Amino acid sequence: MRYSYFLVALGQAAFALDSEHVELEKRLDNGLGLTPAMGWSSWNVAQCASASERYALDTANKFVSLGLKDLGYSYVNIDDCWSTKARDSSGNLVPDPSKWPNGIKSVADKIHGMGLKMGLYGCVGTMTCAGYPGSWGHETQDAKLLASWGIDFWKHDACYTPCTNGQTPQTCWSAAFNTRPWYETMRNALASVKSTKNIMFNLCQWGRDSVWTWGKEVGNSWRIEGDNWQDWASVQRIGSTAGRIYQYSGPGGFNDLDMLIVGNNKLTENQERLHFGLWAICKSPLILGNDLNKISSASLAIIKNKGIIDINQDKLGKSATTFQPPGSGAPVSGKIHPYWAGPLSDGVVIGLVAINGATTMSVNFKDVPGLGSGTYSWKEMYSGRTGSGTSVSFSLGTHDMAVVKVTTSGGSQTTQAPTSSRTSTSAPPQNTGGGCQSEKWTQCGGNGYTGCTSCASGSTCSFVNGTFE
């Protein structure tokens, strides 16, 4: 298994994570997911009934006709229930012929012909969450089948898995639960077919086992919470968690905040703007969970906001997190914090949220991590307002959000750490010259890498294809 080491540096907007050196993180190196995936998933539309050829091709056509393809939406992902209830005599998964009269490969070929990609769903356990065959004991066989069909994306759920008390019902909540080895098995199976088809791997295990601490070595994205149940409470719960674990996202592996519910008439328009904006600045995959035949013009405008999409797809790939301007309160678990900020390759993004009612939200740039005293140019992405100065202020309705991109070509930048910033607890690094520093343990992950694993502050370190040299 090949890994790359990516700097936990936050680029031009220098959110300081360590005052002495910047560490490198080991990530799965399959060449995919360098920015968050963008696409659509079938489940919210009609659950099992939408896991079909008709919905896949209709959505692909909508991506083109609605202009979504041109904005980067590319994955047409079919969720649970696409197969028959039993494998064939050779142990292979079988597409349900009533849903896939022309087979899955034929559909994948058509989707590829439109310049798009196709994804499928499976499960770690013996069955999927809806009771269809899971991949337990068939991982390599399933990976070969997916590659032969040309599948680009695999979502791996966590139902019907073994537990300390043997085979379980749909879910297992044992205190001794450990999902990592099961996902590593599928990771290895997908890696074995990479020469035939390189498949993006999504870990859908509901944020258990602190997946964000190891998911980057196993997949290209990982769910950080339970399902988005298509309500405001879910948006708050998931958004609150995202602010606490921002540091684990980066190119090649991102925190997945679950499907977007914009366009499902489950949220107010203000809440939809907040939902999309927060998912975007936290660098979550932007996977639509809606019926594009029924989406309103207002909801369509939200998911087509190019400025916000560009922030999500920024090549630096670093998530925003919460911060506390003077006089503001600390983040509250289960609630969305009013103040967010994160680094971009060419500036800083600020999120301002009217969480407790209609209000005017203001912030001085000197109080924003990554900025400092001075005058900056800015643009708010929903309204299109632009300006320059030392602060910004917006009148927002209840549960609305302003997403502000600040250009850091002026001013005097600081290295203020955001809320819940991470610091190194390892022994002081040993300088090996040339700006390269070596940690106490230089053999990383048993994968033959013996080079240095950090870069001295103020030094320049070289990279080749994302791998530290």
UniProtKB/TrEMBL annotation:
<dbReference type="InterPro" id="IPR017853">
    <property type="entry name" value="GH"/>
</dbReference>
<protein>
    <recommendedName>
        <fullName>Alpha-galactosidase</fullName>
        <ecNumber>3.2.1.22</ecNumber>
    </recommendedName>
</protein>
<dbReference type="Pfam" id="PF16499">
    <property type="entry name" value="Melibiase_2"/>
</dbReference>
<keyword id="KW-1015">Disulfide bond</keyword>
<dbReference type="Pfam" id="PF00734">
    <property type="entry name" value="CBM_1"/>
</dbReference>
<feature type="domain" description="CBM1">
    <location>
        <begin position="436"/>
        <end position="469"/>
    </location>
</feature>
<dbReference type="InterPro" id="IPR000111">
    <property type="entry name" value="Glyco_hydro_27/36_CS"/>
</dbReference>
<comment type="similarity">
    <text>Belongs to the glycosyl hydrolase 27 family.</text>
</comment>
<dbReference type="InterPro" id="IPR013780">
    <property type="entry name" value="Glyco_hydro_b"/>
</dbReference>
<dbReference type="GO" id="GO:0005975">
    <property type="term" value="P:carbohydrate metabolic process"/>
</dbReference>
<dbReference type="InterPro" id="IPR000254">
    <property type="entry name" value="CBD"/>
</dbReference>
<dbReference type="InterPro" id="IPR013785">
    <property type="entry name" value="Aldolase_TIM"/>
</dbReference>
<dbReference type="InterPro" id="IPR035971">
    <property type="entry name" value="CBD_sf"/>
</dbReference>
<dbReference type="Pfam" id="PF17801">
    <property type="entry name" value="Melibiase_C"/>
</dbReference>
<keyword id="KW-0378">Hydrolase</keyword>
<keyword id="KW-0326">Glycosidase</keyword>
<keyword id="KW-0732">Signal</keyword>
<dbReference type="InterPro" id="IPR002241">
    <property type="entry name" value="Glyco_hydro_27"/>
</dbReference>
<feature type="region of interest" description="Disordered">
    <location>
        <begin position="409"/>
        <end position="437"/>
    </location>
</feature>
<comment type="function">
    <text>Hydrolyzes a variety of simple alpha-D-galactoside as well as more complex molecules such as oligosaccharides and polysaccharides.</text>
</comment>
<dbReference type="InterPro" id="IPR041233">
    <property type="entry name" value="Melibiase_C"/>
</dbReference>
<dbReference type="GO" id="GO:0004557">
    <property type="term" value="F:alpha-galactosidase activity"/>
</dbReference>
<dbReference type="GO" id="GO:0005576">
    <property type="term" value="C:extracellular region"/>
</dbReference>
<feature type="compositionally biased region" description="Low complexity">
    <location>
        <begin position="412"/>
        <end position="430"/>
    </location>
</feature>
<dbReference type="GO" id="GO:0030248">
    <property type="term" value="F:cellulose binding"/>
</dbReference>
